Amino acid sequence: MTVYAAPLREMRFVLHDVFGVADKLTALPGYGDATADVMDAVLDECAKLCEGVLFPINQTGDAEGCTFKDGKVTTPKGFKEAYKQYAEGGWCGLTADPEYGGQGLPEALDCLVAEMIGSANLSLGLYPGLTQGTILALGALGTPEQKTYYLPKLISGEWQGTMCLTESHSGSDLGLLRSKAVPNGDGSYSVTGTKIFISAGEHDMTANHVHLVLARLPDAPEGVRGISMFVVPKFFDDGKQNAVACGSIEHKMGMKASVTCVMNFDGAKGWLVGQPHKGLAGMFVMMNKERLFVGGQGISQSEVAYQSAVAYAKDRIQGRAATGPAHPDKAADPIIVHPDIRSRLLLARSIVEAERALTVWTHMNADISHKSSDAAACQHAEDMVGLMTPIVKAAGTGFGSEITNSLLQVLGGHGYIREHGMEQLVRDVRITEIYEGTNTIQALDLVGRKLGIEGGRLFTGWLREVEATLKKLDGRNDLAEFTGPLKDAVEKLKSVTTWMVEASKTDPNARAAAANDYLRFFALTAFAWMWVLMIEAALAKKNDDADFANAKLNVGRYFMQRVLPQIGGLDAVIRAGSKPLMAMAEGAF
Ligand SMILES: Cc1cc2nc3c(=O)[nH]c(=O)nc-3n(C[C@H](O)[C@H](O)[C@H](O)COP(=O)(O)OP(=O)(O)OC[C@H]3O[C@@H](n4cnc5c(N)ncnc54)[C@H](O)[C@@H]3O)c2cc1C
Question: Each residue of 66-93: b (16+ CB within 10 Å) or e?
Fold first, then answer.
């Protein structure tokens, strides 16, 4: 069996000791209540829900899956009740506007709540995860009437929100989508089209569904500039059903308790959200939130895999330590004595802790960008969120796959069989690399769009922050083994970025050829920054908790000495350019 105890100590360390989130945010309008005590109480409550209610139905939910009959979806046993508890706890509206029933707490807290919920039950957590994105999009772009009508029920979790973008011929390239919306003359539209792969499109846990649908108006220009967004409820307020129905559900590799639907809109009545033809930009309000959320899903699975692999590695006895028996009283030593097992565990832990810190930092910037009255601070914070969104998404999920897979190996053959639950983690996490824009699309966003904004304003803004850390810690000999590698990585990142930008002036494939490796390089450098900040914070509190600080030093050292050097290889791969990829003729494949 997998095991999971919410990593509250780690979460508090990042929130309070590393970033002082409460100190920074309580000064902002609307966040006065977000004190450290309130945040701790929220985390404690969430841990109880996750450990006591959501985690116990994770494996059974996977085994049973969702079923589809006569247009209706039934979620696995226990899901309806667990979701009810989740909704009644107010978790869906944790960050939502108090005017509509939300609690108005910061995203920096919510991302940790989402991580816990994902760890406990990735499938169940996706349902409200989508609702939260819908709340954000309608909150930002909806009319006052739309907000008053939809937001309270979404925030309370009584209604489910969905995002309906994908069509069979239109996935990464949304410019190809064909669904149509024709004005009815009364302010509403008739929406027609078939959407595929719609998460939570239909199920039995909520009383209504609120679909945000991308479609084209009759006069729409071609491509992404001709897409509008519509809100399409399943049921109207008189209880009548709209012309939208689930045609079938997908049979998937993982996340079997999260339903994925084909949704047929057959002249369904909907209302425009935001401006005509600006629907994709509108949907990005939701998608940016979801991309960060999905990055957290990757972390969540790595965390459970780590905890489960540690428990196994301490218990399973096979072979002897190379230095002689570590437990002579036993027939063999626990496998945690073996370097390979330790390496797998330390890789996971060094990445997860850095990712968690980076995620909190990014969400804290989102909070600042939403609430600060200082225009320059807002812009900088927004830039940081924009730059880090593809990195948090793609690195969190890419490493999520690598780590769960690597930790399955710790259990040997027992990892491969269902009973232990490790194979579920590998299957479940795999989709996170694909949905919300594949990880390649994230990497292209980073190298193509984010680096290009105003001659690299986002990148230089981020470098200023990292260099400020290095300047502050200059002369701290006790930190040199961490700051030295960070400094080196930053210089290498600057150099390879310049190389890529130059190469792309003569080679149209240069950026795309480098994209995935460049994103990983960037992520590892950002993680190195997080490790420096974490080590600094841990040493500052060493007298309070020496074991905690020593563990941080050990894991941080592992990262600097055995993970960060990967950037050397990535540097060489990036500089090889696009030729090795593009030289072979299509027919030769
Ligand atoms: C379980 C599940 C849940 C989902 N939930 C939702 C949902 O709720 N709502 C929704 O709208 N959609 C949803 N999706 C759809 C998901 O977002 C898409 O599958 C994803 O965006 C990729 O689109 P595609 O599958 O058509 O792949 P394609 O776009 O066909 O891509 C195929 C491959 O080509 C690569 N590729 C494509 N374009 C480029 C390019 N320009 N440069 C380099 N490489 C490229 C991709 O990275 C990928 O590796 C879900 C999918 C699944 C499987």
Answer: bebeeeebbbbebbeebbeebbeebbbb
